[in-house]
Please model this.
Amino acid sequence: MGRPISIINFERSFWASILLGIGGMVFHWTTVVDGLKKDPLLSGSVDIAVIAVGLALAFGFALSFLLWYLISRRANNVAKWIYVVVMGFGVVSTLTSINDPLSPSGFALAISLVSTALTAVSIVFLFRPDARAWFAKETVDPRAFD
Model:
């Protein structure tokens, strides 16, 4: 069975969100580093904090890539639900941080919001009828994938 159109659209919105997230982080990186330098608790260990933030971001992207693989290539239903829960929290977190003065602003905020919207769209694609069949591995009318 080929991958249904909803899974293909999930991938498209997933990768667009990831690319925007990486672009937003590159755009916002100097602000993150400046914020770490101003933190009095980190005096003398800013370099370690920057490395820790970088490692946390790398871990987050690696987890996202793993979930993408399990969802779109292996039709793993558990991975789908982990993705939905984790990214759902991310969507809520982004929306609640809009008024936070420490959050990105301007263009970085716009990138973050578009990336979050694409993540929400990717979640919606996972619950379309053809995607449900993909995860259930049940016999489906082939016209569902047109």
